[in-house]
Write a structure and sequence with these properties.
The chain is mainly α. It contains twelve helices and no strands. Helix 1 runs parallel beside helix 11, helix 3 packs antiparallel against helix 9 and helix 3 packs across helix 11. The radius of gyration is 19 Å and the shape is globular.
Length: 269
Amino acid sequence: MDIIKYIILGILQGITEPLPISSSGHIYIIKAILNTDILSDLSLEIFLNFASFIAILLIFRKDVWSLIKGFFTYLSTKGKECKEEFKYCWLLVLGTIPVGILGLTAKDAMETLLSKNIFLVGIGFAVTAIALLLVMRTNGTKKDKDITIKDAIVIGLYQAIAIVPGISRSGMTLVGSLLSGLENKTALKYSFMLYLPVSVATMLTGISEVAAQTMDFNHILFYAAGMLGAGIFTYVSYNWLSKIVEKGKLWRFSLYLFAVALFTIMLFI
């Protein structure tokens, strides 16, 4: 039965990570309802996050390789043909800084607050729902080359807000991107390009705990099962999200988020 729990958690991670519904918020609620020690396992969280990271990296592998190659080519040759890739990389760095600062300074305090006031996660769900409604009518025109320093900062600040469980990282970066005038496909790409460095940073902060943990065969098997579920469903979930974003239908997630927000607040207030 334990392996089924890990698979279910992996599937939950995979479905909720790309979608603008907050994976961390759902984990908090399920942890509180089930009161299970599995969800307190930081190593499991890191492994599941790694599986989602690999899935997103595979989806954007061509873009990532193009950016890496263009960045270092521009450094060595200063060729104009690679200037856009060089600029895009620095915009990603700039967009990551706000969440990095907030994560280092406020994450522990946030977790302490939420452990005693779980209903606040419901408020986070509601905030995400309202934010998604704000972009119901947006129709931006900016391409990758049109993203500015101001856009990167604004989108980075939206991402930083998502340190609160219940407020979706992908949802807030998409909202920030669309309100900054990015077209749908450009917003989707930039949102998940920002996810990659944030995900790496998240994994690095907990790597010491993973290294210190002694794992037996069962642990390895359970983690592998959870990671497989997380990876597959992250891939599937992202492809579903991309179709919704292209159609400009992000507001549909608001209906679900308002419902889960009401449920959470009523259950834990």
